[in-house]
Write a structure and sequence with these properties.
Outer Surface Protein A, domain 3, single chain, globular, 7 strands, alpha+beta, 7-stranded antiparallel β-sheet
Length: 122
């Protein structure tokens, strides 16, 4: 592998990670805005059955599409040492994730379309 090929690969990874981080930040902002409107959305869902309300469950925030499929989640990580935000593709596989690693540092993970880990930045 030449230096130019390696540089091109790194630049490609950098573009993907920038996109993923931008998407995650957008999700967090959207989640905050939706959280501020939670009470209003809840009343709307009660008044108009069938409307898709914002879902908040026991320390977990889920963004769902019109069919009720989860497309993004903000919650505690598995070992409950910090928060995590992740987005799913339309098949339900995680494609981007940002949160706290086991060593309590921030980390960003990106996955391929099948949900296999491809990159992580600590």
């Amino acid at each position: 592998m030449t230096i130019e090929q390696r540089l091109e690969r790194i630049e490609s990874q950098n573009r993907r990670l920038k996109w993923a981080l931008t998407a995650i930040v957008g999700l967090v902002v959207t989640g905050c805005i939706a959280g501020l409107k939670y009470e209003q959305d809840d009343r709307i869902a009660i008044e108009r059955p069938g409307a898709v309300p914002t879902v908040v469950q026991a320390g977990r925030f889920e963004v769902v599409d019109a069919n009720g499929k989860v497309v993004a989640v903000m919650c505690m990580n598995a070992d409950r040492t910090g928060g995590v935000v992740y987005t799913n593709n339309r098949r339900g596989a995680i494609v981007a994730q940002m949160g706290a690693a086991d060593d309590e540092r921030g980390v960003v993970w990106t996955y391929d379309r099948e949900g296999h880990l491809r990159e992580s930045i600590r």
